[in-house]
Amino acid sequence: MAVKMRLQRHGSKKRPFYFIVVADSRSPRDGKFIQKLGSYNPLTVPATIQVDRQKALEWLHKGAQPTDTVRRILSFKGVLYLKHLLRGVSLGLFDEAAAMEKFTKWSSEHDSEFAKRQENHKKTRAASRPSFVKKPEGPKAVRSEAPDKAPKAETSGE
Questions:
Q1: Is residue 3 a contact partner of residue 24, using CB atoms and an 8 Å limit?
Q2: Axis-axis angle for helices 96-128, 79-90 (nearest 10)
Q3: How far apart are CA 39 and CA 110, in angstroms?
Q4: Fewest C-beta in 10 Å: which of 7, 18, 132, 144?
């Protein structure tokens, strides 16, 4: 049985939301799955990703093959790097404490770089907004101008 780690689509039309699941490769996309590993919401900025690292790592060790998108997600969350480090431990290149130290260092650097990117994104979005659009100062300011501009109806006696 070929086991894949893939996305299972949920959500309404044009509003996708995905679960990251482990499933038999022959089962339908939204069909039966073996285990749910997390979720992925591409509509938020930045995309929201929730992954159980330990479960994903166990399935990778068992031989589950991630699809391209799930591979990118696992790489972003550090699961593939952790698998790489644990492979080095099993080959005797370094001990598990050194591997965990490397992973925590990578994780902190990754989080700080992600926060910088998020901040730059917010700044560029704020800078790209047109500056000529001004908000009215209040509802009373809008109301006071409206009667002056409205045409006055003349009443005729006939």
A1: yes
A2: 160
A3: 20
A4: 132
Contact 22, 8 (CB under 8 A): no
Hey, what's the torsion of the CAs at 25, 31, 34, 40, to 10 degrees? 90
Domains of the chain, CATH where assigned: 3-126 (3.30.1320.10)
Tens-digit pLDDT profile for the chain (158 aa)?
A: 699 999 999 999 999 999 999 999 898 888 889 999 999 999 988 889 999 999 999 999 999 999 999 999 999 999 999 999 999 998 989 899 999 999 999 999 999 998 998 898 888 888 887 766 666 666 665 555 555 555 566 666 55
CA distance 30 to 19: 10
Range list of H helices, 35-95: 53-62, 68-77, 79-90
Retrieve residue 75's tokens.
């790489």
Q: Which residues contact 19 (CB under 8 A, 6 or more apart)?
A: 7, 8, 10, 36, 38, 39, 40
